[in-house]
């Protein structure tokens, strides 16, 4: 594959770092979400750190990177991010051929979990509500089971997004995965839990500190919330992932007579699609 840049290691490092920064700036200007930009940055940095010669010999590096012992979902993310990056590199004249063009996505095993009422009752009894973290987890469980809100959307909710009087949660456009705002009804039980959580906040925290935050005021993340669920899963004896609560909401909504289009709107799916058991 023809290459434009120098093969010297120091020059290569500078070349790929500059290319990645320019690429991410381009994608940001194109409207890509911050969470996706972060994921792409981490994937590209990992790729070039593990394979320093990748800028000089991308075909070999890509083959090694995608041959690692990883889950199909991780493989697919890597493939998608690398393809997008190298497509951009071709447009810039860095390369003439995309080194990942011959690779195809792998089939993933969509493990859909419906938590029955007994499991949900036990799960809601596990958080220690005498602590801020336990009260937060309890309120977040209820909110997700009430609305099917995505974890990342819930993590960014602030006090201004919660109307306890009207029992509603507002998902702002800049928070929504689809960039379309929506208003979600919540139950009195969830209202009570969120009110208790707000009252337990540190008095020095400003209103823009998220509702569902750590005890020191730092935002929850996908990984930190996953760790909390892993802890509860071990105590419960049932493996629960962050999206399982969202899926459970969807399944119960439909089985209780809810309309598919209403579910689509509540869950923030922005296009007409055939219903499948997986909602992201």
From TrEMBL:
<dbReference type="InterPro" id="IPR010998">
    <property type="entry name" value="Integrase_recombinase_N"/>
</dbReference>
<dbReference type="InterPro" id="IPR011010">
    <property type="entry name" value="DNA_brk_join_enz"/>
</dbReference>
<dbReference type="GO" id="GO:0006310">
    <property type="term" value="P:DNA recombination"/>
</dbReference>
<dbReference type="GO" id="GO:0003677">
    <property type="term" value="F:DNA binding"/>
</dbReference>
<keyword id="KW-0233">DNA recombination</keyword>
<feature type="domain" description="Tyr recombinase">
    <location>
        <begin position="110"/>
        <end position="280"/>
    </location>
</feature>
<dbReference type="InterPro" id="IPR050090">
    <property type="entry name" value="Tyrosine_recombinase_XerCD"/>
</dbReference>
<protein>
    <submittedName>
        <fullName>Integrase</fullName>
    </submittedName>
</protein>
<keyword id="KW-0238">DNA-binding</keyword>
<dbReference type="InterPro" id="IPR013762">
    <property type="entry name" value="Integrase-like_cat_sf"/>
</dbReference>
<dbReference type="GO" id="GO:0015074">
    <property type="term" value="P:DNA integration"/>
</dbReference>
<dbReference type="InterPro" id="IPR044068">
    <property type="entry name" value="CB"/>
</dbReference>
<feature type="domain" description="Core-binding (CB)">
    <location>
        <begin position="14"/>
        <end position="90"/>
    </location>
</feature>
<dbReference type="Pfam" id="PF00589">
    <property type="entry name" value="Phage_integrase"/>
</dbReference>
<dbReference type="InterPro" id="IPR002104">
    <property type="entry name" value="Integrase_catalytic"/>
</dbReference>
């Amino acid at each position: 594959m023809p290459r434009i840049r120098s093969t010297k290691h120091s020059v290569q490092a500078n070349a790929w770092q500059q290319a990645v920064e320019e690429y991410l700036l381009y994608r940001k200007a194109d409207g890509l979400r911050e969470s996706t930009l972060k994921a792409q940055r981490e994937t590209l940095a990992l790729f070039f750190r593990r394979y320093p010669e990748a800028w000089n010999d991308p075909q070999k590096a890509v083959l090694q990177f995608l041959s690692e012992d990883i889950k199909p979902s991780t493989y697919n993310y890597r493939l998608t991010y690398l393809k997008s990056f190298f497509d951009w590199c071709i447009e810039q004249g860095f390369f003439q051929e995309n080194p990942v063009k011959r690779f195809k996505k792998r089939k993933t095993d969509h493990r859909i979990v419906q938590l029955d009422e007994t499991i949900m009752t036990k799960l809601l009894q596990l958080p220690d509500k005498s602590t801020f973290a336990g009260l937060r987890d309890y309120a977040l469980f209820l909110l997700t089971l009430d609305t099917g809100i995505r974890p990342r959307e819930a993590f960014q909710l602030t006090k201004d997004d919660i109307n306890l009087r009207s029992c509603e949660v507002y998902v702002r456009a800049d928070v929504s995965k689809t960039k379309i705002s929506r208003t979600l009804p919540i139950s009195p039980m969830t209202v009570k839990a969120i009110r208790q959580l707000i009252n337990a906040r540190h008095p020095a925290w400003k209103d823009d500190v998220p509702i569902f935050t750590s005890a020191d005021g730092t935002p929850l993340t996908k990984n930190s919330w996953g760790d909390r669920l892993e802890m509860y899963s071990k105590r419960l004896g049932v493996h629960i992932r962050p999206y399982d609560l969202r899926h459970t909401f969807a399944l119960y909504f439909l089985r209780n007579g809810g309309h598919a289009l209403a579910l689509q709107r509540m869950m923030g799916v922005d296009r007409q699609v055939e219903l499948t058991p997986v909602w992201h």
